[in-house]
Specification:
The complex is a heterodimer.
Chain A: H1 2-13, E1 19-23, E2 26-31, H2 36-47, E3 51-59, E4 67-75, E5 80-88, E6 94-96, H3 105-116, E7 119-121
Parallel strand pairs in A: 2-5, 6-7
Antiparallel strand pairs in A: 1-2, 3-4, 4-5
Chain B: H1 25-34, E1 39-43, H2 47-55, E2 78-82, H3 90-99, E3 105-109, H4 111-115, E4 136-138, H5 145-161
Parallel strand pairs in B: 1-2, 2-3, 3-4
Helix pairs in contact in B: 1-5, 2-5
């Protein structure tokens, strides 16, 4: 069942991706940033991947391009997951937003934006969601000092 | 009929015995205050489970007069900080502490509240005593109920030993 849908996915979407594989029971596609929205539209429309699970990023410092944005989708009909990966450079850490396809992407893109500094083109509300107003920097980047704190209340002396 | 040595209610003429006691003001007020600790639970994380265990019937903190949580800081004497405090939460904690009436005490419950625990990052305050004064620290991840009871008893000793001014300089 799962192998069947993976073979159909690779036959249909493999040519549009830089690489495709199956890792730990998840179909993995690495694609170019420009191909993202078209790829996701086909995943959702043709193959029934109707649940947006998560979007996060990996900081591969000092590699270039530095960031890898990772999406996970789930199909409630096929009961399988798909992972998409897009590499973006630090100078232009921007990918397209998926809010038009999945409404739940709005909050997860906000979290990814504040933690890694990835910009989501098309998401009009990228305010901090877990961090607070006035927090400087992106704490899950590898060059953020792990002991650097930004307290809101002055410490007692 | 055998006469009672200490009559439960006065009959006839008052004898004068056991009508007056003398004590020190600080001892009397301290004795009263140490048995009426109304805790305000500032519960943020997994230590809450242990707080529920310690405040329910098997361990029964009501024995120490410290069982009835008040969910308004204005009615509370003891602030129990149960769990990790993040930098985003710190202004709320400070404001709740400022709203509590004197006299007030603070217990840091668990490793995260006492020192930040294993958190040393952008998000967590490494010990609530950086923000508000703490009277008693209960370590553990989470602390056993016995440790919390020990903490309450040590706090009671602290209250019994301290001075209790009726009017302060700011009064």
């Amino acid at each position: 069942m799962a192998d069947d849908i993976f073979e159909r996915l690779q036959a249909a979407l493999g040519p549009g991706a830089a690489s495709s594989s199956v890792a730990h029971g998840i179909a993995v596609f690495e694609i170019a940033p420009a191909a993202l929205t078209g790829f996701v539209a086909r995943l959702k429309g043709e193959f029934g991947f109707d649940l947006f699970l998560d979007v996060t990023a990996v900081d591969w410092l000092p590699q270039a391009p530095r960031f890898e944005v990772v999406w996970h989708f789930y199909s409630t009909t096929h009961k399988v997951r798909v992972r998409l990966k897009v590499r973006v450079p630090e100078s232009d850490a921007t990918v397209d937003s998926l809010v038009a396809h999945y409404g739940s992407a709005r909050f997860m893109e906000r979290e990814c934006h504040e933690m890694y500094g990835i910009d989501f083109r098309g998401n009009d509300d990228l305010r901090p969601i877990l961090l607070y107003e006035g927090f400087e920097g992106h704490p899950l980047r590898k060059d953020y000092d792990k002991e650097h704190e930004q307290p809101l209340v002055p410490y007692r002396t | 009929m055998k006469a009672a040595t200490i009559p439960i209610q006065a009959v006839g003429e008052k004898s004068g015995a056991f009508e007056y006691i003398t004590t020190k003001k600080d001892e009397l007020i301290g004795w009263a205050r140490k048995f009426s600790l109304f805790p305000y639970p500032f519960v943020t994380a997994c230590c809450a489970m242990e707080f529920m265990a310690v405040s329910s019937s098997p361990y029964d903190t009501d024995r120490f007069g410290a069982a009835l949580p008040r969910f308004s800081p204005r009615q509370a004497d003891l602030m129990m900080i149960v769990g990790t405090i993040s930098h985003k939460q710190a202004p709320v904690l400070r404001r709740v502490y400022d709203q509590m009436c004197e006299p007030k005490w603070v217990m840091a419950f668990g490793a995260c509240a006492t020192s930040g625990g294993f958190y040393q990052n952008y998000a967590a305050v490494a010990g609530v005593d950086k923000i508000i004064p703490v009277d008693i620290y209960v370590p553990g991840c989470p602390p056993r109920p016995e440790m919390v009871i020990d903490g309450i008893m040590r706090l009671q000793e602290l209250i019994a030993r301290s001075q209790h001014p009726i009017a302060t300089k700011e009064f």
